Amino acid sequence: MGSAARRVTSVEVSADGGTEWSPARLLPQESAWSWTLWEATLELEPGHRTLLVRAGDSSGVTQPENIE
């Protein structure tokens, strides 16, 4: 029995530690088994930032906040 392919359907980006999330734009994907490229435009004040990114798939699952 093979596993069903699940496509990335959403990507969100946060520049404030995950308090607020901005949607990214997904670029065309060749297949469910290829990388999903994305781009986002954020308006940020000057300074150092750590960006958080999370993705969701076609089954409605979103990446967890941590790997535990």
Secondary structure topology:
Elements lengths: L7 E7 L7 E2 L1 E2 L11 E2 L12 E6 L11
Antiparallel strand pairs: 1-2, 1-5, 3-4
Outline of the structure:
With 68 residues, the chain is mainly β. The chain has no helices and five strands.
Write up what this structure looks like.
The chain has 68 residues and is an all-beta fold. The protein is built from no helices and five strands. It has strands spanning 8-14, 22-23, 25-26, 38-39, 52-57. The chain has a three-stranded antiparallel beta sheet, with no helix packed on it. Strands 3-4 form a two-stranded antiparallel ribbon. 1% of the residues are buried.
Quick one: biggest sheet?
3 strands, antiparallel
What's the total count of β strands?
5
In sequence order, what are the helices and strands, one letter per element? EEEEE
Low-pLDDT parts are none
Radius of gyration: 14 Å
Class computed from helices, strands and strand pairing: mainly beta
Shape: globular
Oligomer: single chain
Descriptive labels:
single chain; 68 residues; 5 strands; mainly beta; two-stranded antiparallel ribbon
